[in-house]
Structure formats: structure tokens, C-alpha cells
Amino acid sequence: MVSLWAAHQEDGTAPAVDPLAPESAWVLRRGRSLRVLPMSAGDCRFVGALQDGATLGAAAETGASPDRGSDTGFDLTRCLAVLLREQLLTGIAFAEHLFPLLLLIGLGTRFSALALLGMTAVIQVLVYPDAWPVHGTWATILLYLAATGPGRLSVDHWIKRWALRSGPLGATVGGTVGGRDGAPVPWSS
After folding, report:
1. Which range (2-16, 60-74, 96-110) has the least confidence?
2. φ/ψ of residue 33, rounded to 5
3. What pTM was estimated for this model as a whole?
4. Distance of CA 152 to the CA centre of its chain
5. Tally of CA atoms within 13 A in the half-sphere of 154 that contains its CB
6. Does residue 100 sit in helix, strand or coil?
């Protein structure tokens, strides 16, 4: 399929086509643009397992297992790179940019740190198992942020200060709230 597609493109190169050779392909369409990329049998099984709802680890095992004694040609790093580059795993790419931005401004600090810690763990276990010094440093920083929370120059800190100064429904502490007849009734927290 890939070689047939390439042979009928207008770029002027026509590779040799073997009609008996099995081929797998990524067929990617964005709007009216169509791209056909070669794909290994292991890549097909990996993507199929993800589509069936398997976890990333289970899908990687499915992709790496040989089918009927054939070589899978499966490379998790390359396969994930294609999925991310073509924006097929949009949730991961979005989170990879959102959570560091939230950490930078200090909004949802503990949640963002724990989410990034989870992403770091997945990358350590499945993608770069030999990069433990870098991932260990990141994990230490993220665990510290998750344990201690935001600092004084954070949106979380400002929200907490505002919430502590405000009483019910945003009334200031030590202010008045209307009684039944509309007369002010003093209160304090």
C-alpha cells in the first residue's frame, strides 16, 4: 500500500513496487491533506490495542509480541513519536504543555506536580528506562512541590489569602450581613 501510494504521487520519484510484499501503513488525514507513512506489524498491533482501550503498557506488550513468528519491527519510542508528531495523542501533548505552565504561575500547584510526576514515571518506565538520573531529579522536585504546595508568589497563595479574608458570599470579615428586616447584623468569623 505504501509503495503503491508513493508510486502515484506527483513528486517524481517512483519506487519499485512488489505487489506480493505485505505492507502496513499509517493513513493520516487532516482536512483535505492525506499522508501515508510506512508502519510495522507491531505498530499496527500497538495502535489497535490502544483503540481497544488497553493501557499504554499492555498495548506496548501487544505491539512487541511477534505475530505468527514474524519480526514485529516495533519500536515504542518511534511509534509514540509519530503519534505525538501527528497530534494523534492530543491529551498527552496538551498536558505536557499545560501542567508546566500551571506550575510556573502557581495555579493548581499540587495537582500539576502530581500529574507531571505521573508523566515522568511513565516516560521512565516505558520510553527511557536508562534516564533515571534526570527523571529522579524531576521526581524529587515534583514530590517537593506536591508536599509543600505553592509559595508566596503564586496564584494559589493569592486565592487562599482572598478566601481567608472573605466571609460568607464574599463579605469581608468583621462586616455586616442584613437581618430579616434588612437591618445590619454584625458578625465575625
Report:
1. 2-16
2. -90, 135
3. 0.51
4. 28
5. 18
6. helix
Contact between 64 and 72 (Cβ < 8 Å): yes
Q: How far is CA 137 from CA 11, 128, 151, in A?
A: 47, 14, 20
Nearest to 80, CA basis, from 50, 52, 100, 36: 50
Q: Which long-range contacts (CB under 8 A, 24 or more apart) does 89-94 make?
A: 92/119
Question: 156-172 as b/e, with b when 16 or more CB fall inside 10 Å?
Answer: beeeeeeeeeebeeeee
- Residue 143 has a pLDDT of 96
CA distances from 155 to 95, 146, 161 (A): 19, 15, 10
Report the distance separating Cα 136 and Cα 24, nearest Å: 38
